[in-house]
Amino acid sequence: MMKTTDFTLLETGAGLTCPAPPGFQSSSADMSKSPDIIAILEDSLDRVETMRRIVASLAVDLELRHFDHAREMRSLLPAAFAKTRLISLDYSLEGSRSASPWPGSGMDAVDLLIRREPVCPVIVHTSSPGQSRRMAEALAGAGWTVRRVDFGSRDREEKWREAVMELLGAGA
Q: What's the chain look like in SS3?
């Protein structure tokens, strides 16, 4: 059974904060009770819904955690690295629902990842070929396993599903 969690930054008097949603566990002791996760950085709700359907169709018990802002991913994902089985990154986040005027980009998430030991494979799913290549090369150079999926193509959903299945070793 797949669970989903969405995160959105809020603007407060003290600046931008990303409140933990109900049920979010941040300590390693609490994380041991939570399911493994797929972390997705994506601003399009339609794409996120498609990804949820794809993951739900696989024979995996994973929670999908969706971020539409690079800063929130950078602040919340490290606490969940031990449970993260797959990360999927978009480059352009112009449709973010965040209160922040600049949601960052997938490269901001890559900058976090390349400073850490690889914990899982990464899919770079963007329609920007140059940025996709740049992100994938940076991740691969730091030892991460990476697959690129061109989200500008008509068969993007099937290609993303194939990449998820390959990287998770999932059947069906």
A: CCEEEEECCEEECCEEECCCCCCCCCCHHHHCCCCCEEEEECCCHHHHHHHHHHHHHCCCCCEEEEECCHHHHHHHHHHHHHHEEEEEECCECCCCCCCCCCCCEHHHHHHHHCCCCCCCCEEEEECCHHHHHHHHHHHHHCCCCEEEEECCCCCHHHHHHHHHHHHHCCCC
| C-alpha to C-alpha distance for 60 and 21, rounded to whole angstroms | 23
Distance CA 98, CA 167 (A): 30
Distance (Å, rounded) from C-alpha 169 to C-alpha 47? 22
Q: Which CATH class is domain 28-168?
A: alpha beta
pLDDT of residue 34: 65
Residue 3 is predicted with a pLDDT of 46
Q: What is the pLDDT of residue 95?
A: 61
* In the chain, where the domains are located: 28-168
10-residue averages of pLDDT along the chain (172 residues)? 44 34 38 76 90 88 89 88 94 68 85 95 92 96 96 89 90 48
Instruction: Count CB neighbours of 123 within 10 A.
Output: 25
Q: Is the dihedral of CA 158, 164, 165, 167 positive or negative?
A: positive
Type of residue at 38: I
